[in-house]
Amino acid sequence: MGKRSKALGMLAAACLTVGMAGCGNDGGSGSGGLDVGIVLPTKDETRWVQDETRFQEALADSDYSTEILFSQGSSAKEKENVETLISKGMDVLIIAPHDGAAAGAAVEAAKDEGIPVISYDRLITDTDALDYYVTFDSVAVGEAQGQYLVDNAEGDGIPLYLYAGAASDNNAFLFFEGAWKALQPKIADGTFVIANSSAAEGLKDKAELDRQEIGSIVGQLTTNWDPNEAKNKAETHLTSAGPDLKGDVSVLAPNDGTARAISDVFASDGAVTSYTITGQDADMASIQYIIDGKQTMTVFKDVRTLVEDAMGMAVDIIDGNTPETTATYDNGSMEVKAKQTDVIVVDQDNVKAELIDSGYYEASDFTGLE
What we know:
By secondary structure, this protein is α/β, with parallel strands linked by helices. Helices cover 42% and strands 16% of the residues. It folds into 2 domains: 3-130 and 302-342, Response regulator (Rossmann fold); 138-301 and 347-365, Rossmann fold (3-Layer(aba) Sandwich). The protein has helices spanning 3-14, 46-59, 75-87, 104-112, 138-151, 170-188, 198-202, 211-221, 227-240, 256-267, 284-292, 303-318, 351-356, and strands spanning 36-40, 66-70, 92-95, 117-120, 132-136, 158-162, 192-194, 247-252, 272-277, 298-300, 327-330, 335-341, 344-346. Helix 1 (3-14) packs antiparallel against helix 12. The longest helix has 19 residues, at 170-188. It is globular, with a radius of gyration of 21 Å. The relative contact order is 0.13. One of its GO terms (cellular component) is outer membrane-bounded periplasmic space. Keywords: Signal. GO terms for molecular function: carbohydrate binding.
């Protein structure tokens, strides 16, 4: 069996297997160099540890040599990681940037050495030193979050608390763009009342926002993907909110880590009688929160599929083939060819079918699962 067919076979098998975080990922390539270098943003977020595990599972028995490095929230460390992988003779770079714009220096170093670059999950912006992008449909993620709040809204005048990801992450803008698309008509007609953003309030009658307008809102509501920052913001917002902005509320939380922190704050306020809160990533801790009724939903982004897309693309490049793409993204300097992966809304009604029956998690990972 050839290297490519064996690797892709293992990728398919990995999609049916979990729990192999300890697997190695350095199968010999036979060329004396490194086939695929992978750089992930940080080990401090559950999401990226999950990605590392899925890469390890997919590559454990392949003939492709790989190395995974973490940048730990530092663009300087990110560039150092790329340079380390270049020195090891890597053939293809897969990189999820800490800061989409600052990562340009890192990927330009790879391109200077003739190394193809795949931007993973987060888009690297303002550089033409990029070949491909594999991603979930980030606008669709935000739209699913916003639509869930709309579908679960009862009555009118519902206080709406908005939160966003990091202003340095292009995905945070795309998530908010999608959420606004679903929410804005219901803000304009009075179903929702914006509770915590003067910038969003000033734009409530505008259906489509440009990047600068989205940036003005994200700048007010950024959590920087940090649960502690999300907790502090939520506490500040609820402290300053009057009784008319409490009661039954809706909360747009950008991801699961921030959702848990924000939900804990809202749950502790006696004047908040109920809350509907979004999330994304299907973190194990948030699945338990959903089972327990402490988080309402999450957007499941099956990392197994994203890893398979990224590695399949890398293998195609190594073998001299043209990877399949389904979309393009404007990164400010070029139109980047991309492959998108679908997302799934998960709540109490379908959590078992989507995450347990599919083999993504084990039932024994949770309590109270029916």
